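In response to reviewer comment 3 from the previous cycle, which asked for concrete evidence that the modeling workflow produces usable outputs, we include below a single protein chain processed end to end. The sequence was submitted unchanged, and the resulting structure tokens are shown without manual editing.
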Amino acid sequence: MHPATLPSAPVDASPTGTDLVAAERLFGDRLRLAVSYAELLVGVGVVRGLIGPREAPRIWERHLLNCVVVAEIIPPDARVIDVGSGAGLPGVVLAVARPDLSIVLLEPLARRAAFLSEVVTALGLAQTTVVRARAEDWLQGGRNDLADIVTARALAPLGRLVAWCLPLVAEGGSVLALKGESAAEEIAAHRNVIARLGGGTPMIRRCGVGVIEPPTTVIEIVRERAKRTSVPAGMRRRRGRPRRPA
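The workflow returned the following structure tokens.
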């Protein structure tokens, strides 16, 4: 990473109190690397508008710990695609905690993708790749490298999220959507769409029980059909201006 992109005096972002206890348990000997990432988030990440200034004091409780507990439901040596990775939540956090994972950080916005590339270089995340693209573009051009796990955090309503993410998952793999307390309501509202796209029965998983409070709520959807599914018309992102009628 170019030295000019780093803050001249990194902000101390070390966890304390109960956050430190949880971080030591969840990151183990990778904790120092996790602290380095936290420093980038609350430093240059805030300066570039990737993290709000009010989030800096709670970067561990609200973001890093909330994300890292998802690692407990990801199998060893999995191929992971983090859709709409933004500042790297949860993708970078998982890469830090789980060096066995092969991770693609999929992010369409240039400034976010640039930040992610700098973070990956700075932290030496050898098995993590940044791709500037939207989820629906991933399989364009003959790509067939489907993932075992696709993650997404605070990206979109469940039906739309599944339409973007499920086609990226290999048969038997899962979409892991990090959600809030409305998870059950979202499942009820979008169950038919999920089934139509080839997803199995959505399951609510609570990650980090007994370690963080509250635990992280994750909706897991297994891809049951190998056939590539099309995105329903109402869930496609518009590209450019609509064509005027003749």
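Residues 31-47 form the longest helix (17 residues). We consider this sufficient to address the reviewer's concern, and the full set will be provided in the supplementary archive.
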